[in-house]
Amino acid sequence: MTATLTHSNITSQVKSTSSFAPSTSTEDRFTVKLHKLLEDAETQGFQDIIAWNRDGRSFTIYKPVVFAETIMRKYFRQSKYKSFQRQMNLYGFHRGSRNGIRGVYSNPMFIRDDRELSEQMRRKAKGVSKEVSKGGPSSPYMTGIFHPQMFMQTVSPIGNINLQLATLLQPVPININAMRCYSSKSSQDDDEESMGTIEGQILDEEDYIL
Predict the structure, then answer these.
(1) Which is more confident, 175 or 132?
(2) Name one GO cellular component term (predicted).
(3) Segment 27-33 mean pLDDT
(4) Which of 18, 152, 197, 202 has CA atoms 20 to 30 A from the CA of 106?
């Protein structure tokens, strides 16, 4: 039978655990603390607030407000949930939803029962776009930032195609004098052919009469 835990009980349990005494820089890393927090959620019974998902490759924060007020201060020495989310972004976590519940986080290097892998995670350099908070990789076409080089790479092929089409559709020069000479010669040939036909008919009629 699972006992019901109040906020005060959770806080006292978290405080009673010497989770992170002065230690090495690796143990002070955000991802290592987060991994330890999720382990404590199972052993101390506050999985209704934050817990691993069944796949072991993602976790869910079910109660962000309670999480910030009762747990964050002990593990991360702060109680601002936005600051926690900022750290998640810097470490490359992807945020999504599952079964209608928002606050599902995942990272290929953050896996249950493999804390050593989380020790290898590194923060992103400042200035990198917040692709994680949007639930996927950022695109230069979606950030609203103008990239001249990328713009030229996109426009140049279109310009080349337009130039080729313009070349193909360019009007063919017409020699008017040559056309007139050809037209006059064609008319003269037609007249001579018609005259020959008429004369032939007359000769045939004369032969018939004779």
Answers:
(1) 175
(2) nucleus
(3) 86
(4) 18
What values do phi and psi take at 104, rounded to 5? -95, 125
DSSP state string for 31-99: HHHHHHHHHHHHHHT-TTTEEE-TTSSEEEES-HHHHIIIIIHHHHS---HHHHHHHHHHTTPEEEEET
CA dist 53 and 103 (Å) reads 12
CA torsion sign for 138, 72, 61, 118 is positive
Which of the four pLDDT bands, split at 50, 70 and 90, describes residue 95?
very high
Q: Whose structure tokens read 């950030």? A: 143
The edge-to-edge listing of strands for the beta sheet with 94-98 is 50-52, 58-61, 101-106, 94-98
Structural contact between residues 27 and 72, judged by C-beta atoms closer than 8 angstroms: no
At residue 56 the predicted structure's pLDDT band, cuts being 50, 70 and 90, is very high
Domain locations in the chain? 7-119, 179-210
Give the separation between CA 25 and CA 203, rounded to whole angstroms: 121
CA distances from 188 to 56, 60, 197 (A): 95, 94, 14
* Chain-centroid distance, C-alpha 51: 28
**Dihedral through CA 13, CA 14, CA 19, CA 22, nearest 10?**
-120
Which amino acid would we find at residue 145? Answer: I
CA distance 210 to 207: 5
